[in-house]
Amino acid sequence: MAGTWVNLGVDVYVNSLPERLRPGIGLRPGGERPDLEQVVVVLYAALYESIAAHARLGVNVVVDVGHHEWYSQPRRILRDCARRLTGLPVLFVGVQCRIDVIWQRREQSWGQTPGTADDELLGAVERWQQAVHAHDGYDLEIDTSVLTPPQCVEVLASRLSEGPPGTAFERLAHDG
To answer: How far is CA 31 from CA 21, 42, 45, 68, 102, in A?
Structure first.
């Protein structure tokens, strides 16, 4: 796509953290690491302040993160992140993928299958799929088990150029 684009997603961010703070914003749903949750709140705030700064300077930003609220207590991180981007054009995209395809990809990447994974990993994959889509609505949804990466980019580029503009983050920012 035209313009200057940067990726400020979870994989980039987690690699910048010291080991003691990992996985940070990649923290899995389930409240398993309450010791990291308060720092996760701060890390998300810092990430979204950086996203806002890039956008205000005219840099297009792709943010690949899975937001969830399945912590040991409510943290309202997504609402806070949405508020930090108030007044900026945001397209909130839900990336869907069938669970069987997720497991195929995990097998290709890490040799993990449902038959060899322990109960903790099986539960984590299931919780992730539920938790990251448990909020109210996206501006656009794409299914990576159906579309190829170039097709996903084509869908996104079309929506960005033809509209309508995103409203999901605005709605989330004013939630509760």
So the answer is: 15, 17, 19, 11, 23
What backbone phi and psi angles, to 5 degrees, belong to 58? 90, 10
Say what the pTM is. 0.90
46-97 per-position pLDDT tens digit = 999 999 999 999 999 999 999 999 999 999 999 999 999 999 999 999 999 9
Q: Determine if the peptide bond prior to 164 is cis (ω within 30°).
A: yes
pLDDT computed for residue 14 by the predictor: 87
**Range 18-36 average pLDDT:** 90
Continuous H helices in 16-95 = 34-56, 77-84
> CA angle at residue 91 from 38 to 170, to 5 degrees?
65
pLDDT number for residue 135: 85
Domains of the chain are: 5-173 (3.40.50.300)
Three-state SS letters, 24-43: HHHCCCCCCCHHHHHHHHHH
Which residue in 93, 96, 94 sits closest to 160, CA to CA? 93
* Both structure tokens of 85: 């981007």
